[in-house]
Design brief:
Helix content is 49%, strand content 21%. The chain is α+β, with helices and mostly antiparallel strands. The structure holds adenosine-5'-triphosphate (ATP) and magnesium ion.
């Protein structure tokens, strides 16, 4: 073994034992030295290696690179400045990510070439991506949890207020009644006071029933009592229940229905759906007429409630069906923000859907679609 061959083979062995893929190129872009890792990294075949030409090696590698043109431009740019160092990240088509450093190689103070070192950082990059994804998911989950807590806090505040209002009115009426229970009491006025009390008790009961429904749904205990039900009768009953409220608001209700639309549904739940939609139409309808349309095409029963009131901005439309979600400020409009949540849940429990079409300032149409159980098969 010659004196020179020992350091050379030692150098080769050293290079092959480094983690990086190393390539040394002279000023004419001839390959002076490379190691096994570099060859494996870019799967460079023997004939290209034998040519010792860096341009051919780059050309061969291009096929494997995600942005071949950008890569070639960068490499050529680096060779234009022999004394500059460089760093770039190479993304390969097979998903690997390689960090590539290059430094000028000096001998006796002059630049004689360039040393490239390539490190496969795919595992680290994937781990970072995974960590970023987890962080993003966690941040999103935290924001959602905070929003849920905020909605719940707001809900508790509004609910206490909503429950307090009828109680105060009930209390005042009862006190008035008590005072008047003296000899010579006016029976007519006592009766109307009692009717007022009954109305407030009705309001309280309805509010508490709605809250009970929310917790029943949350606990997965919503059950439907199915029987033969006519949607027109459901609307009639709901409208009769709301007659006082409609009269008080001076709102005209127009019902369009050509024929009975009968299905196997839970009549009470559907009445709640219609009541919630009508109550909203009165509350947000600006005193203008409300129209209810009932129709069927044999497969789907459709019931829509249209008002000509404040309408709903497109971006808030989908949120309105969430629990406790309100699209208006509590200062201007009362309500717990559960009417539409309950309505949609009841409709979905029937296998149907509830959706809204609306433009701000032009009113809103809420449509309930229910599949008809005895639908005849579609024409071939
Ligand atoms: N017909 C409508 N026109 C305009 N906005 C509506 C209409 N119906 C519902 N909204 C909007 O949707 C929100 C949610 O309605 P939802 O019925 O769930 O709650 P609410 O009426 O505020 O309270 P609750 O029904 O529990 O008493 C309302 O706060 C309102 O912003
Ligand atoms: Mg409502």
């Amino acid at each position: 073994m010659s004196r020179r061959s020992l350091p050379w083979s030692l150098l080769k062995a050293t290079l092959d034992s480094t983690a990086d893929g190393i390539l040394v190129v002279d000023l004419h872009r001839r390959i002076v030295l490379l190691n096994r890792q570099f060859v494996d990294m870019f799967r460079i075949p023997d004939d290209i290696l034998a040519a010792r030409d860096d341009r051919r090696a780059v050309n061969f590698a291009l096929d494997q690179i995600r942005d071949p043109e950008g890569f070639r431009r960068t490499i050529d740019g680096i060779y234009e400045h022999p004394d500059a160092s460089s760093f770039q990240v190479i993304e390969l088509k097979d998903g690997r990510v390689i960090e590539c450093y290059s430094l000028p190689q000096y001998m006796a103070g002059a630049v004689v070439g360039r040393v490239w070192s390539h490190r496969d950082v795919t595992a680290r990059v994937r781990a970072e991506e995974q960590r970023d994804r987890l962080l993003r998911d966690e941040r999103k989950a935290r924001a959602e949890a905070e929003e849920a807590v905020r909605l719940r806090d707001e809900f508790v505040a509004i609910a206490s207020h909503e429950l307090r209002t009828p109680l105060t009115s009930l209390q005042l009426t009862m006190q008035g009644l008590e005072r008047r229970l003296a000899p010579g009491m006016d029976l007519e006025r006592a009766r109307s006071a009692l009717a007022r009390c009954a109305r407030q008790i009705g309001r309280l009961t309805a509010l508490i029933d709605q809250l009970l429904d929310v917790s029943r749904i949350q606990a997965g205990r919503l059950e439907l009592q199915l029987s033969e039900v006519d949607l027109c009768a459901v609307v009639r009953d709901a409208a009769a229940q709301l007659a006082d409220q409609l009269a008080l608001a001076g709102v005209e209700l127009v019902v369009r229905a050509e024929a009975p639309v009968v299905g196997r549904w839970d009549g009470d739940r559907l009445e709640q759906v219609v009541t919630n939609l009508l109550t909203n139409a009165v509350k947000f309808g600006g005193g203008k007429p409300i129209e209810v349309a009932i129709a069927s095409d044999g497969r789907v029963a459709r019931l829509s409630v249209t008002d000509r009131g404040i309408g709903i901005a497109r971006e808030t439309q989908s949120q309105l069906f969430e629990r406790f979600s309100r699209g208006v400020s509590a200062r201007n409009y009362g309500g717990l923000g559960i009417g539409l949540y309950l309505a949609r849940t009841f409709v979905v429990a029937h296998g149907g859907r509830l959706y809204v079409e609306s433009k701000p300032g032009e009113g809103a149409t809420f449509t309930v679609e229910l599949p008809l159980p005895h639908a005849s098969p579609p024409p071939p």
